[in-house]
Design goal:
Layout (H helix, E strand, L loop, with lengths): L5 H8 L3 H9 L6 H14 L5 H8 L4 E6 L5 H16 L3 E6 L4 H13 L4 E4 L9 H5 L3 E5 L7 E5 L1 H14 L4 E6 L5 H17 L4 E6 L5 H13 L8 E4 L2 H11 L10 E6 L2 H5 L5 E4 L2 H17 L8 E4 L2 E3 L9
Parallel strand pairs: 1-2, 1-3, 3-4, 4-5, 5-11, 6-7, 6-8, 8-9, 9-10
Antiparallel strand pairs: 10-12
Helix pairs in contact: 1-2, 1-3, 5-13, 8-9, 10-11
InterPro entries: HTH_LacI, LacI/GalR-like_sensor, Lambda_DNA-bd_dom_sf, Peripla_BP_I
Protein name: LacI family transcriptional regulator
Keywords: DNA-binding, Transcription, Transcription regulation
């Protein structure tokens, strides 16, 4: 069966092909009668517009990309859900890729998105912020999500405040030998969260100590490993309070520690992100809640605003405040 063409629609509607094209691409230029006739012809013929050709003519893809760090972490899937909602509301498709927290994978997907001529790209940087000059030179708009930036629009969370709130809470419930478990120090969020922890310990005075443990990745398996290492320590050297830089690590630690120690009496644990599993854990996890869905939603809205604005662009930066959510991993009264 021959494919229905634009000219077939025009012939049936009794209008020019230009009128049909305007109906599809610039409906504001088409009067009501012409629109009625073209719409009827499209419905009768079952015509499907060639969107690829339209995109090439218009120089737009009507799609935005999002390179997230780790699709196995519920934090990032929730982030993407918020971005997808904003894109859908504005009539854009969202193409999702995961760098697996690898800088080369991040660069690969950014190249793919550039070659696909996407209108704009959201990026949750892996270990370091990628070189985005090539995308910018090509006219592709970029917004960083979960990372501050002076060079691009960005949406992030005050992680210094988050680290401080988590650590101060442990101190307030009587913990004195503290441990911070974080990712690589070159990641800005990790530096900010541990900076907040250090500030809380400094403010508490000399009887509170803080040991830092930094790992290349932060996963449930890493949490289990650190939990086993804590159990191997003599009781007098074990931390009695832990701030984990994400919930997955905290949950992994609790899986190991809860079989041998009392949580929160012997050791209290605070996570970070407030993923769905945090509240559903056998011992509900105290955590620092990030407005994850809103982060993704606001980042996408910011990108779409940059795509549609007509005046001179000024970068905007949104910083959300985190919220400490107290549960049974640090307080029996929670």
């Amino acid at each position: 069966m021959a494919q229905t063409r634009l000219s077939d629609v025009a012939r049936l509607a009794g209008v020019s092909t230009g009128s049909v094209s305007n109906f599809l691409n610039r409906p504001d230029r088409v009067n009501a009668e012409t629109a009625r006739r073209v719409s009827g012809a499209i419905e009768r013929l079952g015509y499907v517009p060639n969107t690829t050709a339209r995109q090439l003519r218009r120089g737009q893809s009507e799609a935005i990309g999002f390179v997230i760090t780790d699709i196995s972490n519920p934090f990032f899937t929730t982030l993407a859900t918020g971005a997808a909602q904003a894109a859908r509301e504005a009539g854009y498709a969202l193409l999702l890729a995961t760098s697996a927290d690898d800088e080369s994978g991040q660069s690969q997907y950014l190249d793919v998105f550039e070659n696909r001529n996407l209108d704009g790209v959201l990026v949750t940087p892996a270990r370091t912020t990628p070189n985005l000059d090539k995308l910018r030179a090509n006219g592709t708009k970029v917004v960083l999500v979960d990372r501050e930036s002076d060079d691009y629009c960005s949406v992030s969370v005050d992680d210094v405040a988050g680290g401080l709130a988590a650590t101060k809470h442990l101190i307030d419930v009587g913990k004195r030998r503290l441990m911070f478990v974080g990712g690589e120090r070159r990641i800005q969020q990790m530096r900010d969260r541990v900076s907040g922890s250090r500030a809380a310990v400094l403010a508490a005075g000399g009887d509170v100590t803080l040991v830092e443990e930094h790992r290349e990745t932060l996963s449930i398996d890493v949490g289990r490993e650190i939990g086993a290492e804590i159990l191997a320590l003599p009781p007098a050297r074990r931390p009695d309070g832990v701030v984990a830089a994400n919930d997955l690590v905290a949950l992994g630690m609790m899986q190991v520690l809860s079989g041998a120690l009392s949580i929160p009496d012997d050791i209290a644990i605070v996570g970070y992100d407030d993923i769905d599993f945090a509240a559903a854990s056998l011992i509900p996890l105290t955590t620092v809640r990030q407005p994850t869905r809103e982060l993704g939603y606001r980042g996408a809205r910011m990108l779409i605003a940059e795509l549609t604005e007509t005046g001179e662009h000024e970068h905007s930066h949104v910083v959300f405040q985190p919220e400490l959510v107290v549960r049974a991993s640090t307080s029996r009264s929670a």
